[in-house]
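Troubleshooting: if your tokenizer reports a length mismatch, compare against these two reference records.
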Amino acid sequence: MWQYFDHEFEYEDAYRDFYSPWAGHKYFSYDLVRNIRPKIIVELGTYRGTSFFSFCQAVKDACHDANLYAVDTWQGDEHGGFYDEDVYTDVIKIKEKYYADLKINLLRKRFDEAVDEFDNHSIDLLHIDGLHTYEAVKHDFEKWLPKVKPDGIILLHDIYINKEDFGVHQFWEELKGQYKTVEFHHSYGLGVLFKDGTHYQSFIDSQKEWQIRYSYIAEDKKNEKIHKSLTSSERLLTKHERQISGLRQIISEQDDKLAVRDGNIARLNDVLSERDGQIATLNGAVSACDRHIAVLNEGLSERDGNIARLNDVLSERDGEVAALNRTVSVCDEQIAVLNEALSGRIADLNRAATERDGALALIDLMKGSTSWRLTRPMRFLARLVRYGLIDDDRRNLSHRFHYRYHQLPLPVSVKNFIGIFRQKKMAVQMEKAGAFAIHARNALRYVGRRDFDGLKKRIHFYQADQFIQKLAVLGPPKRWGVIATPHTLFVAHLVASRLRAHNFEVDIMTNPPAGFPHDMYVVICAQMLDVLPPGEKRIVYQMEQSVSSRWFTDAYIKILECSLAVLEYSLVNVAFMAGKGVMYPHVHYLPVGAGTGYMDHLPPVEKTCDVLFYGDANSSPRRREMLNVLRRHFNVRMCSEIFDMDMVNEIRRARTVINLHYYKNALLEMPRIQECLSLGVPVITETAQDQADYPDLTGAVIFFEEGNEQAMIEAVRRALHHPVEPETIRQAVAAGAGRFAFMFDRFLVAMGFLPASKLADDVLPLPQGASHIVLSMPETIARRRLFEANCPQCFAVFDGIRLRPGWVGCGLSYAKLAGYALSQGMHRLTILEDDALLPEDFEGKMRIIHAYLDAKEGQWDVFAGLITTLHSEVKVLGAEMFQGMLFVTIDKMTGMVCNVYSEKVLRILASWDPDHRDDQTNTIDKYLERQTDLRIVVTLPFLAGHREEVHSTLWGFQNTQYRELIAESERTLQESAGAFL
């Protein structure tokens, strides 16, 4: 039996809805809920809440246990109109004020996004009141029908509107032929649909009565409320009229008082005029005082500024003095150790000299023998050959000992053999003593010019070199552990994938293992772990941003210093940590890349979110403010504290991901960006100071000006309306993955964990067809930044290969670049080193040089912009003027600072042997110098110079040591070329 209820709607105190299109049906909806007592009520399209809060009122009055869901974007649509955030705010206020104890869920989503949150056959009562086109209402009905219980009821509003593109009436006519229905004609019409007809028979008997009763109730209640409103307004008007009459009486009395006051004011004005004259005179005096005070204040401000600057200078100087004192103390200790060791070595040299004198006496006896005289012609011939190949007066002391005693002719008697054996043993001792003496002499030179910082760097250079060489002897670690925090698991995946590509065993873990049984560990975000592997088997991947120093504590710096090596993802951080003493060669640059095939095994997912933000928004005020702005315009999903596959699935369901900096002027959050791209999802992010370091992101990532909220909104709107092409993302991922693979392999080679042959020529991270290359070490960031400030536009930077000793890594870089150029079909390659000092008109001169080389095609092999050391036997083959520049052709060269290589020389460079470890003959410049049929073109004066303010990455000394060699080479060539002009 249908029961009617007499009730009041509490929400009407805050929201008068009697003109609402739905207001005429709320009495039926109230009675419907009271009669059928549904457990789950869902409404699609709530607006201000007339229908929804009638459901809530019925549940509240009945003390009924039910879950109520309102699904709406609260942004409006084409039919109902669009509106601002105030509508949603008012709905929340009504919910919290009148229905706070009910189980109400406001789902601010599109209908299709919310449908998956409900199980099939779970909804008792469904109200559909969204967009009213035929297609929209049909789509909503069919999408949500499976969610309604078999005996459930569905309400559709506006079934009697037949205008423009409103199509509910049309779809309702179709439904009436398929289901049991009841309908109301008033208030634009309401359709009641019984899914399987279970309740229909018990309700149909009341249909006519419903249509009459609820129609009249709607009008009566509406008229009653309007009448009450009018009556209240009339009473209020009468009250106001009485108040106005009283006010008029008061105004009349006040007018009389004002007349008296006006007379007083006139008299006072006369007095004031006199006072104004006095005040003007005083103001003049005050102004003069103010000007004088301003002059004094300006002088005081200037003085305060000078004092503050002087205090800063004093503080800085005090710090420098303290640091220098500490350095001097350390150097004094090291000098004492060196002096003690030098004394011992000198004693060893004296003993070796005594033994040498005895050996020379034996040699004199041997020279008097018959066999010596008979073999004299053969020895003479051998000397000619030997001296022709190895005549170099600039060799160091240890090499001369090696040459003299290790190349002795084979003896012909046992007695002489014993003598020669003793000589060779003595030679080895003298060679070691000589090498030590040279190192000690160099150290004393630093001390002599009080360059203690240079001495410290040189000692560190040789210590690191010896340690890495010892490590390489032990062989590469076979079993690796990658320890990562949950939010860096993507980076752990990149590291592990690359190690597995080289057949290493790898385990990824988020907690350190007991006892650390692996051979080597890569620790990501080490500062967040309580227990770390021992330093000798720990490589730290540093992921924090130096724009905030909160993580860079003394303890964290100590962790980095005591680790076997440090991987750093940002060049900005490389520069920052160098200031903290964590620098080359301890640091290896490893930018975070992308992962090809990352999560490709997962099935496709439906895009349910327009914009996703994941990360910490609460503790960053700038993030929180920008997200609040974004949420007023778009459907934004925010996620935090979820990781691994949960996070992967959230990203895959998003159409785009928004990335906002935690700090102002921050670096790009590369792990987050590269993971999204690897999953095929485009990224929108603020610009950053290191953006130029990631050219592979171009096109796949949409950048907007940092902190610009309007630019952010426009970027998101553009990304949603014109999505990034999947192919563009795929290319960016391939480029990022290739760069990471090369840079990680570069690190493994530098550590001796991977043979240099594993670095393939055709995968160098360079732009397609790049024929102008700058060879640079990113870890020596000061050199790179100095060069970048004046780098020619057409040059691409190549991160040089690192290998111990450094000259081998340099040679290997040239060999790989040459192999790359040949694989690209190039016939000419220009390479600059980042300590090249270029003239202001460099590009103009290079155009002339290339024009000259074109004119001399087939008559040159190398153009050398700088000759560091001119070979003593160099020959000048020709000299001529061309477009105002003097070109000289010679047959030998030593210098790689700024060169152009022909295809012939590229093949020679590509054949360089990194296993030939003789630094007197096989450094890459001496390797070219040894070639016998080269034609080298130079300009006079030399095209390029050598920066003297930077350190050599190969030998660890200041470039000033090249100055005299270069000047001498240029003078000698000038004199020799004069004969051709």
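Reference record two:
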Amino acid sequence: MTVELSILGPIGAARGDVALDVGGPKQQALLAFLLVHTGGWVDAHLCLEAVWDDQPPDGAVRSLRTYISNLRRLLGPEVEIETVAGGYRLVLEDAHLDAGQFEAMVASARAIADPRRRFARLSEALGLWGDRPLAGLTNRLWASIEADRFDEMRARVVADRFEAALESGLHHDLLPEFEAAAADRPLDERLATLAMLALYRSGRQADALRAGEAIRRRLADQLGVEPTPDLITLERRILNHDPVLRWNRAKTNLPHAASSFVGRTSELAELAGVVTSVRLVTLLGPGGAGKTRLAVELGHRLTDRFADGVWVCDLAPAPRPEAVDDLVGAALGVQPRTGMDRLEAVAEFLVPKKALVIMDNCEHVARRAAVAVARLVGACPGLTVVATSRVPLHVEGERSWGVDPLAVPEEDHLPGDLDEALEYPSIRLLVDRASNRFRPADSQAGDLARLARRLDGLPLALELAASRLATMTLEEVLGDIDGLDRFESSTVDGDVRHRTLQRTVAWSHDLLPEASRAGLARLGVFSGTFGAFDASAVSGTSLEDTGRLLRTLVDSSLVVADTSGDRTRFRLLETIRAFALDRLSSAEVDTLRSRHASHYAGLVTDEAVRLNGPEEPVAVNTIADAFSDIRAAAVWALDQAETDVVTALAGSIADFSYWRGAYETATWATEAVELPDADAHPDWPALCGSAARGMWLLGRFTDAKRYARAGDRPTIATPVARSGHPHDVAADVDLYEGRTEAALDHYRSALEDASVRGDLLRVSWTQYYLAVVSAVAGLGDDAVAYATECRRTVDDLANPTAVAYATYAQALAVKRHQPARAEALFNESARIARGVSNDWFEGIATMESASITAFTAEPAEAVAIFGPVVDHWDRAGDRTQLRLTWRYLLRALARAGLDEEAAVLIGALEDGHGPARGVGLVRPPGGAVKGVRARLSEDAYTKALVRGGAMSHAELVEHARQVIRSA
């Protein structure tokens, strides 16, 4: 068994579950000293001082050798303690050191773009710590110094974790932790500013300002220094309720690069200046020129300039031009809306925002991408677009920017030594990407320069050549590259650099074994990232053979591996993907695409089951990682009228799709129901339920009822997805339109049926809804009873989403009579939902919590509380929930004396656009309406009412935001 060694708390060692006795204090001190210097040589005299605290007695050398011998015998072959040059070196072979694990986990966490996953990884890393590093030894000077160093390292990671928490919207849930951490390190400005921001976002502006003043005093009194500009700026923004401090679900989806960025310093600086005055810049260049990497690096450097985020939309996975709009919406997290297409919804969302969108890999869908860019830039004054393409988009106002290759030496001025050679970024990239076994000498400077020139300084070509330096000499690589003309380019593009890249790819491809070449070709059908199991299933090869293939292709730079998550994901660059597909016949492509679609249909069917159980977090990540290929499979299945496949894809994962903002599955479902004989399919109810739920979320109640009626097949097995029961959608419409008795009748019958069948998941879902409908109908005792039973049921399911909705039901049931308890329960529900990226349940719980907080907060703060709620539902495109938000905001406005603004919302609710206007759950609250009407003159009230009724949805959202900002 592996030996586990610990220094981040008490010194310890264990093999499996068995703790090892590491000896007395002196032997422990020696082990700790060697572990602190793992892999490095330490002088024996330093070991003596470490063990005996600078006063080694007579015979200490002999005792030291005894301790070394004891440790070798104790730790076994996994830990090697070498005797070298009058000292020792401890080398960990298969053993694990907690400090090493910690550093590796932190490094991998910092490479994760998704803040929630980064937060989870950093939390896991910090879980390795005890109370104090090197516990029991800190009476020794060296150990005290090392412990302090470790504590500083931990403090930085704690701050990184809090930053990820703030990016994830966990400011309220972790507020006690923020405050405790800042109190533990009272002079740490970074922790103080993070705690201040968490306080402000939790509605405690005054406390945030007091925290800022307190650290100002401590810095002045104890250190005699002024606060940094960051603290001063934060205080000013808190005072002014600066909108930039509001939490948005994410500020960016920019990927974090796994390798260094080489060269292009001047280009970055110049481009950063260009985008201040030009709103559309297209980076032009051949494949492999580094356009994407340059655009992403530019995005990272400009995040502070765009208050509403920097977003990457990769168009490479677009299975057809029509998918461009969905990819743009998905990248921004914006869903379709009633009466408008996906791009109109994106434009409506972006109109008031200052954002940068990177449209990557436009060339294969250039015409559709050009239309999308033109519409967005024309409609959104605060939007800047940076596109990457091999061809211009020809959009009005476009500035084309040629991405040149990395600089190479002139033919008549080759570098004389390595230092001179490395001044050229093309050569730096070659050396940086080469195996660490490649250590060039001064005498090879000229050959490096010739290789860089021969590859035209193209980054991808250089990386492909660099990967070969692990198994070939520089001279051999150069010799092969000099013969590139023997490789015919499959491209009709006349660009010399593109032909160079095509031939370099072909050269690298032809160096592969025949089986690896065939394996690469088969991988061309993947649109996004994939796992080894996916590749094995689609390629029809064993998992073991697929693993070997992927390792070979990664080593050859033909496949990119992402190890930042729990499992390695792979992807092909678009240039390589196109090259791979060119190696296949049309019949082979058809076969692979069919196998690909069937594989992903099976994957979502399996994951749909796991979504309902304790493995929901794993299922969510699996589906999210695979969504580009799920989309490609759905498009192929629709084009081929493969009903089995598209029904599985559109019907199985309704719970993932609609609770996590992937509403495009509703489009697949609505297209699928039109396929020949689709209504004869056994899963027809699931398909109709999926389409109906999508329409309901968009506020299209008439269409929702139509699809729900079409799926009325009581003799067919119950659909898997909780949110995809057709009858439930019809009952939801009844609820929102005020027919609560009809909704209650449906769910009572559904509960009885589920109980007879022993379907606990269905039982919990119907109990949840019965609690909600009873609460809305004013049947408080019934609501409490159903919510209590629901909670008991979900305890057996151990499903996070089920626990979240049961907790929500408990909160809603007691909201009127126990508001404090309800608020705590709503916050708990939101926290649980957030943990599995369930945006919808997080949103309704947050909205209800805000409605309670607004009754006790100061009037201005009560209005401000609804800012994040409006942003949440506006991004999600859920107009039904936005109308509920208007009702709560209306009350807060009336309480704050903003009666005209409240009357505008009354007009919107009574006469505006949207589902079931003025009836049921979305009618204006009578008490607030009565008060506003009494305080305003008849003329002022009527004008505000008419104004609200005439507002478009976008105007109403922006009006609400302006009112919230100015409150």
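Descriptive notes for reference record two:
- The radius of gyration is 31 Å.
- The chain has 46 helices and 14 strands.
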